[in-house]
Amino acid sequence: MADKRRKRTSETANRTRKTGSSRENNAGRRTRARRKKENNRSKLVACIIAEILVIAALVIAMASRFGIGTEFTEWLAQLRKPVVQELDLSGINSSTAVLMQARGGKVIGEINGDQQMYPASMTKIMTAIVAIEKLGDLDQEITLTNEMVAGLAEQNAMQAGFQPGETVRAIDLLYGVLLPSGAECCIALADTVAGSEEAFVELMNKKAAKLGMDNTHFCDTTGLHDPNHYSTAKDIAVLLKYAIKNDTFREIIESPWHSTPGTNVHPDGITFYSTMLKNLSDTTVTDGQILGGKTGYTGEAGHCLASFAEIDGLEYILVTGGAAGTGIPHINDAVTIYNRLGEAALALNNN
Hints:
The protein is α+β, with helices and mostly antiparallel strands. It has ten helices and ten strands. It has one domain (69-350): 3-Layer(aba) Sandwich (Beta-lactamase), CATH 3.40.710. It has a six-stranded antiparallel beta sheet with strand order 2-1-10-9-8-7. The longest helix has 64 residues, at 2-65. The relative contact order is 0.14.
């Protein structure tokens, strides 16, 4: 009997050990399964984060490559705060004006924005951007000829100061177009790019059509008066909106001055000054700053200005034309409107 009890006790102990071992094995398997699941989840999260970082890097790279970084930043800014949607432009010297958001092109104020006007030297915005896009090498050297400057002095055309026989870089001619408004620089670039001013003007008109400047027609590269050379404030605003997306154009038009290297005619080089910025003792306006612009004047066009500024963290374009009188009524108009816009932005953000 005792032997039977000992046998039953031993069998019971064995079953207990087996059951305990089985439970431990099951617990171990569950633990290992849980850890594996957690590891897989961690790997998945890491993969997702890595993919997000890759996508973010691609977005930043594409923004830089295609010049949309500023627009993207401004779009984010508009999501964070209220933006002025409309502004009164009355009470200025100019007879035509358009104030446009640089991102998206929304017009938030205008005076006769679609009225036909003569663009004068604002034409050179188109001359410069077409030349930049068509020239393969901005450091290539170009020699001015007598034909390039013929008749410009007689027409009272602004000139940068380059002389026939002078060899200069294309980039210096571009500075000469946009800063001192040099007509000889326009002709030299046009001849180099297209073989003649007439052929280059065809490129300008094709570009205008592509940009949707339906009320614009160019007859020359300089803006010298011609009854068939016309535009509107709205069309010029569309043009400037496009042009400032180009890094080279933007760098030039934002420059207060530029000094060229020495040439065969000017061994010490020439220093140009922006026709707009040299007339601004302070580019600061209410809640912002005027960044750059291109002036224009003929007797028929009056004083004109295409400018852009950053107000309350966003960029705006202002084009005015037809300002009468002496002095700088067009530049004064820009200061007035940008100050008014800044005040409106501050009031909106303080409410």
